[in-house]
Write a structure and sequence with these properties.
The complex is a heterodimer of chains A (about 180) and B (about 250). Chain A has about 180 residues and is of the alpha/beta class. Chain A has one domain: Glycogen Phosphorylase B (Rossmann fold, 3-Layer(aba) Sandwich), CATH 3.40.50. Chain A is built from 8 helices and 6 strands; from the N terminus they run αβααββαβαβαβαα. Chain A has helices spanning about 1-5, 20-30, 30-40, 75-80, 90-100, 120-125, 140-145, 160-170, and strands at about 10-15, 45, 65-70, 85-90, 105-110, 130-135. In chain A, helix 3 packs parallel to helix 7 (about 140-145). By secondary structure, chain B is an alpha/beta fold. Chain B is about 50% helix and about 10% strand. Chain B is built from 8 helices and 7 strands, in the order H-H-E-H-E-H-E-H-E-H-E-H-E-H-E. The longest helix of chain B is centred in the N-terminal third of the chain and has 30 residues, at about 30-55. Chain B is globular. The chains are: A alpha/beta (about 180), B alpha/beta (about 250). Chain B: It comes from Flemingia macrophylla. Chain B: It is a single-pass membrane protein. Chain B: Belongs to the ALG14 family.
Chain lengths: ~180, ~250
Amino acid sequence: MGNDEKTKRVVFVTVGTTCFDALVKSVNSDSVKQALFEKGYTHLLIQMGRGSYLPTKSEGDDGLLAVDYFTFSSSIADHLRSASLVISHAGSGSIFETLRLGKPLIVVVNEDLMDNHQSELAEELADRKHLYCASPQTLHQTIGDMNLSSLLPYTPGDATPVAKHINRFLGFPDD
Amino acid sequence: MAEILKMFVALIEILKLPVIDKSNGSNFSSVSSVAVFSSAIFVVTLILIRLLYVIYCNSRPLSKRASKPVSTLIILGSGGHTAEMLNLLAVLQKDRFEPRFYIAGATDNMSLQKAQLLEISLIAENATRVPNTAQFMKIYRSREVGQSYITSVWTTLIAMVHALWLMIKIRPEVILCNGPGTCIPLCAIAFIFKVLGIRWSSIFYVESIARVRRLSLSGLLLYKLRMADQLYVQWPQLQHQYPRAIYVGRLM
């Protein structure tokens, strides 16, 4: 078992508080599971949120990935920390939590959302090489083509410029 | 600005004509109606001038140096919006921005809890100083996700009245907000208070980091209607598109 733990490489999938069946379906597909397996991942853990599509659980006996899922958890941070790869919906909360932990991240944009401004952020961060951006249909390709060593670490932002502007506007002296 | 006034004067001239024609009969009621009408015009003109003055003063730094703390209303948006706001609060000088009032949407259970945690940690830090207690309030939202448009007319009315009640109670000197829609009624009322001279509050809006290419609807409203004194954006592209916005880099 100890040896197993060492070689355990978990892919954590999170949809946050949304309903994103297309992503759950996509990661549950053979093509995505095959691509992940070929990249050396051993476990697939899916946080499926409010979705209704249930992935197929597996112990990994068939020589492929072990698959497990749950709806919500108060310990998302722990799951992120123990993951080797994170596949997330495009919510800014999930994105920045993962980036701050320095985990490789693939963001899958929900194309069914009406006002899809969320893709803006994911695409911008993908352009800056902080993460990969995919759609449910192209996820298996993204996994196959990805090169995690080319990703750049994300430096967390800083709110002090805003505070400075506000202080100056109100006439408070600079520190 | 002068053109708007000219147009307005022209409009008054046009409106006056039929009234003067009627007053040829020179009976008392038409004379008084002329008086009512012209005083109404007078009041409207005053309000318009005041409105232009407020718009002119907005986005100009306050002239007097701040010497004492300012009462601050913090509007928490939910989810990622709240996370960004808490990052800003973490670096703001708490002794300058007090007392603090927090408002979150009625269906948002997480945001006020997080703000309460922040305030509790502040009390723990400053055990020696008597802290100004923060207040936490919830506001009705004009429209929940998926609500029908017919019922949302009614709920919008209730939300506006509730927002007015809260603003009368708080009358903040500073408003910090970063979307989404929850902040619009409160900012609109704050702007009306400015025009009516009830309270001069400085409105600061930070556009969400999720907005890279276009402002959100809330941001766009506050920008176009010049309701926000300062509007901050977190991506340089946005600043190029909306030149009056201020680029401040990422908060997350």
